[in-house]
Design goal:
Layout: H1 3-21, H2 29-32, H3 49-73, H4 92-96
């Protein structure tokens, strides 16, 4: 895996984890009963993006390390997902990779 692939994989995982964790433990202004004029009741009351970003980054590092290890080890290859045999027969070059 090249450096660009590693960065792209990390970024995709980071944003997926961010969007999964955003609603967790979210307390809205409507929940507290303190809705600021001009805002929606579903707006967050106290949102700390710095704290959320640290949590997301920690989770992402673990997931990325596992996925990068699996990819670089060669335990799973693209040919393993060729369920409909569209790639054709494996050649001797594919066996070594």
């Amino acid at each position: 895996m090249g450096i660009t692939s590693a960065i792209v994989l990390f970024s995709v995982i980071w944003f997926l984890v961010l969007f999964i964790t955003l609603p967790i433990r979210l307390e809205t202004q409507g929940d507290r009963g303190e809705v600021e004029p001009g805002t929606h009741a579903g707006a967050p009351a106290d949102f700390s993006f710095k704290r959320k970003a640290k949590l997301v980054t920690a989770i992402t590092v673990v997931i990325w390390a596992v996925l990068a290890g699996v990819i670089t080890s060669g335990a799973i290859k693209v040919r393993d997902f060729d369920w409909f045999h569209r790639m054709g027969p494996a050649t001797s070059q594919d066996a070594g990779k």
